């Protein structure tokens, strides 16, 4: 098993990213058997499709790397790097651009959503983004890719590209990467609106818990989180359409590694006046130590950059032979 996963460097990480992605990465890393490996990267090249601020991109890359290290990604067990330091991603992307079809990319819902009505004004990178994503995975000949609901279509495309490449050039170069769907990964909603996803691009900072937030900010954000006036029932299903209540229970359960059902049973009959402080205490207990490590790492940004370079060297050692084989397959003289 070889796992490959990336996260776009478009902002500071929050509780949704932690519970929905990073915590799963750490668990996957910790569960690797001998001979298995995991590559985790910061997708700074992907960020170029939406970001135009060089200083912000540079800072965000280091800050996100520090956050991943603080959360438990360990260079001795997994490989952590930034995409730009491994040029094989871009080179393979260009080769795969000859394989991918316009019609395939035109069908990507993320392209349609993000470009909106202004297709003529969208960047070319935003359109070809899924081809780079295919290269990200195929360049390591990955067998498994952790994906959220929103990325399933792109992984399917990577499989189509791999299949067509293998067939067209009569090689057996790319294994078809399988989705790794974690049962434990919850979808965390905004603290201001239970129908919207918690997200780094939400303009309201009160909508999310950032992993860099101080304890009192965490407590304040949960205190002010939108809820209803009803007490908690004794079954999670009975929460029905109470989206904000469901979300806070889901957050509590994920932080405590418990089932949402066991959480509502514990708090049955109580209102949010008592549930919210308990939730804040739990969040502070889990996130506080991560923030403290993060703050220390941010004091030594050079060291964080050096960690990324170290990971990139390991990644290149695996990516280079795949690129070479792809170049040979298509007849490039290099
Ligand atoms: P943006 O608003 O820029 O899209 P984001 O907060 O959605 O940012 P992404 O970089 O798109 O973050 O996602 C990084 C990872 O975190 C992905 O694996 C994604 O599935 C996961 N993730 C993002 N938001 C949530 C959330 N609210 N709940 C659970 N997982 C999330
Ligand atoms: Mg997103």
From TrEMBL:
Transmembrane segments: none
Positions that bind ATP: 8-10, 16-17, 148-150, 188, 197-201
Keywords associated with the record: Aminoacyl-tRNA synthetase, ATP-binding, Cytoplasm, Ligase, Nucleotide-binding, Protein biosynthesis
Residues binding L-tryptophan: 136
The protein's enzyme class: ligase
A Gene Ontology molecular function term of the record: tryptophan-tRNA ligase activity
Domain of life: Bacteria
Motif 'KMSKS' region, residue range(s) on this chain: 197-201
Keyword ATP-binding among UniProt keywords: yes
Annotated compartments: Cytoplasm
Record-linked CDD domains: TrpRS_core
This enzyme's EC code(s): 6.1.1.2
Alphabetized SUPFAM superfamilies for the sequence: Nucleotidylyl transferase
Predominant localisation class: cytoplasm
Gene3D superfamilies: HUPs (3.40.50.620), Tyrosyl-Transfer RNA Synthetase (1.10.240.10)
InterPro entries in the record: aa-tRNA-synth_Ic, Rossmann-like_a/b/a_fold, Trp-tRNA-ligase, Trp-tRNA-ligase_bac-type, Trp-tRNA_synthetase
Reactions the enzyme catalyzes: tRNA(Trp) + L-tryptophan + ATP = L-tryptophyl-tRNA(Trp) + AMP + diphosphate + H(+)
Ranges spanned by the short sequence motif 'HIGH' region, renumbered to the chain: 9-17
Function: Catalyzes the attachment of tryptophan to tRNA(Trp).
Subunit description: Homodimer.
Assigned protein family: Belongs to the class-I aminoacyl-tRNA synthetase family.
Protein name, entry field: Tryptophan--tRNA ligase
Gene (UniProt): trpS
């Amino acid at each position: 098993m070889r796992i490959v996963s990336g996260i776009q460097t478009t902002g500071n990480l929050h509780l949704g990213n932690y519970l929905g992605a990073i915590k799963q990465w750490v668990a996957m890393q910790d569960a690797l058997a001998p001979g298995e490996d995991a590559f985790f990267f910061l997708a700074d090249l992907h960020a170029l499709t939406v970001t135009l601020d060089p200083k912000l991109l540079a800072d965000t890359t280091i800050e996100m790397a520090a956050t991943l290290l603080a959360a438990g990604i360990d260079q001795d067990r997994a490989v952590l790097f930034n995409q730009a330091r491994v040029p094989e991603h871009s080179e393979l992307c260009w080769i795969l651009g000859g394989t991918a079809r316009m019609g395939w990319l035109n069908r990507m819902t993320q392209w349609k959503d993000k470009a909106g009505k202004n297709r003529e004004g969208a960047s070319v990178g935003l359109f070809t983004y899924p081809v780079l994503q295919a290269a990200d995975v195929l360049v390591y000949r990955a067998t498994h890719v952790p994906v959220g609901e929103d990325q399933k279509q792109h992984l399917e495309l990577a499989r189509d590209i791999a299949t067509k490449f293998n067939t067209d050039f009569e090689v057996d170069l790319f294994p078809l990467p399988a989705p790794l769907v974690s049962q434990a990964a919850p979808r965390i909603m905004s603290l201001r609106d239970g129908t919207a996803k918690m997200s780094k691009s939400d303009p309201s900072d009160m909508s999310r818990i950032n992993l860099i937030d101080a304890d009192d900010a965490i407590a304040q954000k949960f205190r002010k989180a939108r809820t209803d006036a009803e007490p908690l029932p004794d079954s999670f299903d009975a929460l029905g359409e109470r989206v904000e209540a469901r979300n806070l229970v889901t957050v509590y359960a994920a932080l405590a590694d418990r089932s949402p059902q066991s959480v509502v049973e514990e708090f049955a009959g109580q209102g949010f006046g008592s549930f919210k402080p308990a939730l804040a205490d739990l969040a502070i207990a889990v996130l506080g130590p991560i923030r403290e490590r993060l703050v220390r790492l941010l004091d030594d940004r050079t060291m964080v950059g050096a960690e990324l370079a170290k990971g990139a060297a390991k990644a290149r050692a695996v990516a280079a032979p795949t690129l070479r084989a792809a170049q040979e397959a298509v007849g490039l003289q290099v």
